[in-house]
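Quick one, C-alpha cells below:
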C-alpha cells in the first residue's frame, strides 16, 4: 500500500484504505473515494493532484491525497 500521491499517472488503481479523522474520511467518501473503488491519477503539481474517480475529476491537496491508500 502507498499514498495516492505516489501513483503512476494514467494508471487505474484500487483504493485500499482511507485514513484520517472521521470528518476527513466522511468528506472523502462523499467525494467518491471509497475502499474497493478505483481512482486514476491525472496530474500532479507541487504535491497537489487531480484524479479521476467515478467518472469525475477531483482536485485534492497533498494532505488529503496522502490519506488515500492504494
Amino acid at each position: 500500500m502507498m499514498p495516492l500521491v505516489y501513483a503512476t499517472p494514467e494508471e487505474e488503481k484500487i483504493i485500499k484504505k482511507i485514513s484520517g479523522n472521521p470528518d476527513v474520511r466522511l468528506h472523502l467518501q462523499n467525494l467518491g473515494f471509497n475502499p474497493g473503488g478505483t481512482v486514476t491519477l491525472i496530474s500532479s503539481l507541487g504535491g497537489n493532484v487531480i484524479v479521476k474517480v467515478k467518472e469525475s475529476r477531483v482536485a485534492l491537496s497533498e494532505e488529503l491525497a496522502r490519506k488515500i491508500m492504494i
